[in-house]
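In practice, a research group might receive sequence data for several interacting partners and want a quick structural hypothesis before committing to experiments. The following worked case mirrors that situation: the sequences arrive first, and a predicted assembly follows.
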Amino acid sequence: MRIHIATDHAGLDMSKQLIDDLTGDGHAVTDHGPSSYEPLDDYPSFCINAARAVVRDQRAGETALGVVFGGSGNGEQIAANKVEGVRAALVWNTSTAELAREHNDANVIAIGARQHDYAEVLGFIRSFIATPFTGEERHARRIAQLAEYETTGAIEGHEIH
Ligand SMILES: O=C(CO)[C@H](O)[C@H](O)COP(=O)(O)O
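A structural hypothesis for the assembly, expressed as tokens:
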């Protein structure tokens, strides 16, 4: 699978380890930065670039997921979700990693590098990658509503204030 990864200064050490381990798992990992430690760097562009690459690859028919992380993962999730077609989930345990795929068909996982040790983070990402979307109608319906709102500003049959 193609994995697009991005972080900021808060996750840079972890990012390097993750790239090695995910590559070792057989994935094709693309690093969207940062390339060096800058304590005042800004996560949005790194995360948006990773998120855009995930959508581009998926729309081209490739199997791809994204990994974005920083100190909390919050801003990184917010940044990724600004990209049309992205469903980025903030994950903090194995259950949320699995549910992000099973119920939300999330295509980007966001994690707080300052909230977990490395083994936990790697485990969350491996669970996320290994878990398929269930495809159940109710989940597909809700995801379609999000996409409809994202592209039209409306959800047919539902009032949007
Ligand atoms: O998690 C983050 C955003 O949600 C950032 O990694 C975090 O805010 C960086 O903090 P600082 O600049 O104090 O190192």
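Before designing any experiment, note the following. The first helix runs from residue 12 to 24. The CA atoms of residues 7 and 144 lie 28 Å apart.
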